[in-house]
Amino acid sequence: MKSTVETLDGNRVKVSVDIDADEFEEKLDEAFRKLARQVRLPGFRPGKAPRRVLEARLGPQAARGEALSDAVPEYYAQAVDDHDVDVIAAPEIDITSGAEGGPVSFDAVVEVRPLVTITGYDQLTVEVPSPEPTAEEISQQVDQLRKQFGELAPVSRPAIDGDNVTMDIYGSYNGEEVEGLTVDDYAYEVGQGAVVPEIDEELRGSKTGDILEFNAKHPDPDEDGLLRFRILVKEVQETVLPDLDDEFAQEASEFDTADELRADISGNIARAKRADAFASLANQVGEQLAELVIDDIPEALVDAEVQHRLRTLQMRLASQGVEIDTYLEAIGQTVEEMAEALREPALLEAKTDLALRAVAAAESIEASDEDVDQELAMLAAQVGQTVDELKSSVFADDESRLKGVRLDAKMRRTREWVLERVEIKDPDGNPIERSSLNPDSESDLPPTTIESQTT
User: Is the CATH code 3.30.70.1050 the one for domain 2-111?
Assistant: First the structure.
């Protein structure tokens, strides 16, 4: 097989392929073997009729169309792979010779991924939440833990948010009692907004013995009337928190001292905030890279990304035992409406991808063998195999798949190259070191943190 590639306008190329007659004979033999399994001839078992008998009975052209239908896509794929043509759509194939006999030639015109040029990718600035835990955040987490071990004590003052109110509650709608809204000795934390907001509004400032009567909007938007409530406040209690001391730390955690417990809480907050900040950094960099792409994006790229997102959603739902049709019905969307909703993020992803490819080309970024091995290791972990098992089962007879892994490794390396050069600031304009956002970094954690956890 011989092949050439000619660049056309509109992000298209023409792949021309020539196959000599002897090489195509192998495809004809395969086609006749397939035909033998389909045609019954007297004196021969299915699939056992020789080619010469089939040609004599059916004619020499009987299998040529089958051979062309099967072989041309294979030859096209080989030519695309040989010339590293980055196709993004199905080709338009025209058999120029060999339809009736002899050598075979065909042309395939196909849309390819455009090559874009961008500037400013090494001067990006993003603002992300500070990865440092604040004293208030630490205190809130500590108090939440203390609250789990707190004790209720009655108070004579008016109720405030966080107090526990014991009450008899009677709810009615259009003069009829509402099941579930009529309860005696119901314990309720003021401010939690568990039923309707009017209950919290009325309970704030109430005291033991108060009788509260009021109307409230029905939580069901299809109901126009008002709910009627009558509440007897029987007791108001506050939560008395235990002291944050070593004894509490030993009771509430695996730590021996309050300092160790507080340091662990601080470390957990830092990890979570670091993960949030890194996610924000990655998202903003992707968006800013996409904005640098001013070229028109081929619809084929966007369509492919939309379909990829739909397949990913379908697989994720299937892993949970949910059919995509059931999911779409539940959210009130059709497949077409879902696809349309995905077009904007798909366009952003397509632009970001083109921008990263442009950066890689401009900066001569390539994936090393170590990068590829790292990519393979991540893939192997996802499917529960070793790298060697993955290579033998998936990549042994498909070099193009390994090229795809190398491309993924190259794109990962390019993202890292861009991220290393981004100027990062917190909301107050203070610079943030990129290293402090590393998911596995411990640089911003207290030295007494013991628990190891990746958020």
Answer: yes
